[in-house]
Design a protein that fits this description.
By secondary structure, the chain is an alpha/beta fold. The chain has helices spanning about 15-20, 55-65, 80-85, 105-115, 145-170, and strands at about 1-10, 25-30, 50, 70, 90-95, 120-125, 135-140. The protein is globular and about 45 Å long. Bound molecules: 5-O-phosphono-beta-D-ribofuranosylamine.
Length: about 170
């Protein structure tokens, strides 16, 4: 059984979805810097560390020693001392076809420009939104009239493919 820790942010829908779809993996903990995260309203959650202190986060992770760490909407740059400590064991979900639109608002920018629309799941490296790509799923932006419609489709793709990768990844 893969033991997985998930970093999440204000929404946390991917965190909840990963718990819902647990199969050959177990979400043993969550980490968020957002005490106001919507996900925290749910019942029956695994233990969650709420912290913005990366030294505290490192200690917590070392203690848990997970097989896999998933960055799913944690909107802070994870420092290299954490990336390096768990090299090859951290994956990141990003809402565009990388290397296009790294950083914030990637989903909006890709939809507005009709370029690189979709999601990327990749190994995290020290550089933001870089590292070996595991999966990319393209979405045709011309099928959607508004950004909201596009965004709904993007979330569906995230909720389908992130658990799939977590289940299938060989570490
Ligand atoms: C996702 O679109 C992810 O790709 C991005 O942040 C979003 C998080 O969504 N980095 P949620 O909080 O899991 O709903």
């Amino acid at each position: 059984m893969k033991r997985v820790v998930v970093f999440f942010g204000k929404g946390g829908s991917n965190f909840l979805n990963l718990i819902k779809k647990e199969n050959n993996y177990k979400i043993i903990a969550g980490i968020t810097n957002r005490a106001d995260s919507d996900a925290l309203k749910e019942k029956d959650l695994p233990p969650i560390l709420i912290s913005s202190d990366f030294n505290e986060i490192l200690g917590y992770l070392k203690n848990l020693n997970p097989d896999l760490i998933v960055l799913a909407g944690f909107m802070k740059i994870v420092p290299s001392f954490i990336i390096n400590e768990f090299k090859g064991k951290i994956i990141n979900l990003h809402p565009s076809i990388l290397p296009n639109f790294k950083g914030l608002n990637a989903d909006k920018l890709s939809f507005e420009t009709k370029k690189a629309c979709g999601i990327t799941i990749h190994f995290a490296s020290e550089e933001l939104d870089s590292g070996d790509i595991i999966l990319q799923y393209h979405i045709n932006p011309y099928k959607f009239k508004t950004y909201e419609e596009y965004h709904r489709e993007l979330k569906k793709a995230e909720w389908t493919f992130l658990p799939d990768v977590v289940e299938r990844i060989n570490l």
